[in-house]
Amino acid sequence: MHRAVMAPVAAAIMLLAGCAGGGGTTASAGPSAAGQPAQPAKKIALFLPESKTTRYEAFDRPLFEAKVKELCAACEILYSNADQDAAKQQQQVEAAITQGANVLVLDAVDAAAVAPLVNQAKQRQIPVIAYDRLISGIDYAYYVSFNNVRVGEMQGQALLDALDARGTTAKGEIVMIHGSPTDPSSADYKKGAKSVLDGKVAVGREFDTPDWSPDKAQQQMEQAITALGRDKIVGVLSANDGMAGGAIAAMKRAGYKTLPPITGQDAELAAIHRILTGEQHMTIYLNIRAEAEKSAELAVALVNGQSPAAPATVSNGTADIPAFLLDPIPVTADKVKDTIVKDEFYTVDQICTAEVKAACEKNGIR
């Protein structure tokens, strides 16, 4: 549907020079006209769920803030990261409402439990945008995310293709390491992956991973190896790159000479290194710039009293939410050059470190 176009995060940070600080950014509304009192700055509050996943602080936040400043120099940004603590996020949202936030952009730690917070905002006529994770149980302005079921389908298909290529599909079992049970996106990834893998490969062990924690994923993989036996595991379906890294650490520790294919998501730099050197089979590249900038555009429109039409709707069990759903892109070693490098998601220097230089040359990355 679209082509991911991602400038280096450094460019986004440059746009923010002098604007960021501490827990948020601020801007004045400018001088008053004709001696009239200055109007208070419009306030847009952004809430991100955690910092264990690299993307949130490295990409989502600076890209969102840069786009808001581009579109609304007088807007004030109230930023908070909940560090995977639902109670902390509740306090952050309530504080932003008290501070006079005009729009909330919320990536919920527990998307099934934040309806009361959204209701507080609605009572004060503050529109809410669900960012990345679908909030259930209440109506709100917009949902901006990726086609999450499609992400799972791509992961499942990539793993199945890798197993077929190795001739191991029917010779063992796979381990499935899903994301946080409080994140509805995780259920979508699982649904998509299972739609491809069910009936085609045996599942030896399956885990939901609190907080999307790489450490917990490593422990889960260690449990699976102990239960199934090292030689019985032919593949690993990991829902993201951080957990893939944990699973790979467990397999290395267990003495694997050749790692089975393992999936991921988010195109973390460490994962790109692993993909090029053959430790990880693939990742899902998400156009975070498009997601962050679309959310910023909608937030600025809402503070200006506008309600842009959305191309889709998504049911959250209570209401049909106007939605912008972006396409994910699967990336294997042979696709890094034409996606990650071409879109300048990372520079060649960032990717092609000394340890990865030979693998870069093999894949035409210079």
Automatic annotation (TrEMBL):
Keywords recorded for this protein, A-Z: Signal
Primary site of residence: other
Compartments reported by the entry: Cell envelope
Domain named Periplasmic binding protein: residues: 44-306
InterPro entries: Bact_Solute-Bind_Prot2 (IPR050555), Peripla_BP_I (IPR028082), SBP_2_dom (IPR025997)
Keyword Cytoplasm: no
Signal sequence residues: 1-22
UniProt superkingdom: Bacteria
The protein's name: Sugar ABC transporter substrate-binding protein
High-level lineage: Bacteria, Bacillati, Actinomycetota, Actinomycetes, Streptosporangiales
